Predict the 3D structure of the following.
Amino acid sequence: MSTATVAGSGQRADRGGGAGLAERVFRIRESGIVAVLIVFVAVTTAVRPRFLDAANIQFVLVDTATFALLALGQTMVVISRNVDLSVGSVVGLSAYLSATLFADHPGIPIPVVFLAGLGIGLACGIANGVMVAAGRVPSLVVTLATLYIIRGIDILIVGGNEVDASSLPNAFIDIPKDTVAGIPVIAIAVAVVVALGAYYLRSYRSGRDLYAIGSNPPAARLAGVPVGRRVFTAFAVSGAVAGVAGVLWASQYPTINSTAGNGYELQVVSAVVVGGVAIFGGSGTAAGAALGALLLTTINSALYVLGISSFWDQAIWGFLLLVAIALDQAITERLTSALRKINTGKINTGERGTRHA
Amino acid sequence: MPDLTDRLRPALRWESGLAAVVILILIIGSAASPQFLTGNNLFNLGLTNGEIAIMTLPMTLIVISGEIDLSVASILGMSSALLGYLWSKGWPMPAIFVFVGVVGLAAGAVNGLLVTRLRLPSLAVTIGTLALYRGIATIVLGPNTVSSFPAGYTNLGINAVPFTGNDMTWSTLIFLVGALIFGVVLHATPLGRSVYAMGASAEAAQFAGIRVKRIKTGLFMLSGLVCALAGVLWTFRLDTAVQNNGLGLELSVVAIVLLAGVSIFGGKGSVIGVVLAVLAFAGIQNALLLTNFNQEATGIVTGALLLASVFLPTVFLPQAVRLVRRLGRLRLLAGPATAGQPRQP
């Protein structure tokens, strides 16, 4: 009898302490990104004050928006210990099809086009989700295959054509330029979506389930988490979000051909990992991933403003990504050993507590 | 009476399915175009797929050992860019070869050490070095293009190996010799067995006394060296060094290796499967080219094969095996009537 109570109280106590510590550490992780961001902005502004011009800030925010949107979907997938490599292809397909909608149906309302893009992406995401969840095959392989297949379909549809911005309605092309109080509307909309996503992952049961699945899939299954359904949902959301990102892409770039979004998938995964989402699942936040996207875009812009050739972009990205994952690993290892110490400590206090009672 | 199952099991191996696919492609290809099986066409096939094929060999070992290397195409690009840059600076070609080889080894060593010593996931590390190495290629060469390499070297890229009747490229020869060496090492040496062991369970392999970290680092370094060689071949074949040489090839290489039946989780796969997968990959692209299919959309077929490579073994093959077992059990039930002697002493 008494041993049972001891074990129970001990567990309860250590779970509280552990969660508190984990949360603090991840907050540190996000503030780390913010710190790097501030350093970059401060140094760049000191050298080239025009970096903090309203025009440049708007430019960076618009560029970040599409990227952060994709990072949100990818975050849900990566947290569940999966990966979605098909997003670049989905962006390309959705960008071209939504742009041709305007050409084929003049006067079509813009929200309808966004819904169409969402539908296209959702269809791709559902295909991925069904194969990964029902077939129980590795998502890396499935989405690598759909990366090729969706891009191939895109190429068959597009052929050698391209849609020029001049054939798109002005209201659509102006979407990236629209601002409220100096802040691009797209950035505000994406921030709201990311906030909703972050709230869902933090506070909804099904959101928490994704973390459980990512930490230990067999344990999650044994604990009654509907693993297949949750993973399916994550892929469906990632696809839908990529579809919407494709429409945004179409509004931002002067021409859309069959190469739109080519190779984007690895950039999105980079942003997510830089943002502190563990590549093998179980930890990370939507806000962190969005910050990761903002950081990578800011670095690009800073290098440009500093007059450093854009040829340096990729090497610096790669280096930063390596630093980020090495840092994460160090933090995780510290955290694990700290949790172990807390465990032993809390169990001791728990024991004493029950004896007194 | 398990011998029926045992006898049928080799026929149910993934490699035999691949062999059937390759034969099917040969039949369809030669039916679609009389040019498909000509020496000239085979030569072109080897020409356009040689570097990818060569890079699949070390990738096979890395995936079997339970890791992945997504930086291969970037190492190819980096070696191509360095080759072009140093040549334009007037370095002698042999010195450039040595330098490029050392850089390839170093690039692989960085991957390997980050993965084994810092215990970082290879998927994330090599996405990082994918950007880093491509970035170095971009910094080295910028927007420049270096061409006009000496004909003696570029001929290596486009000419046939002597005594092969103009049918075999140097890269094809390198691939075949490489496949032989990799095959022997993987399937017939203790080193090869330990690669399987660490792929099945790195921890168990460690306890069994296998130097997991050292071997994995070695595999990444080998991959770096081979990819540097592929970069040299690529540069000579096109007589061009630009920073985006081989961009995006890593996914093709991984696709071929997975198509070959190598498990993404490690511990399973064979070199003969990889050779067959390379043939299937190249054959499909070529057959589609001859049939006027949009060449760039051949990814659809690659993707479909890739899906087949995961769904057939995990979903359909177990059912086939179960069917065979049931057949075997039927024979077993029928068995005592004919072979019932032991029952009646």
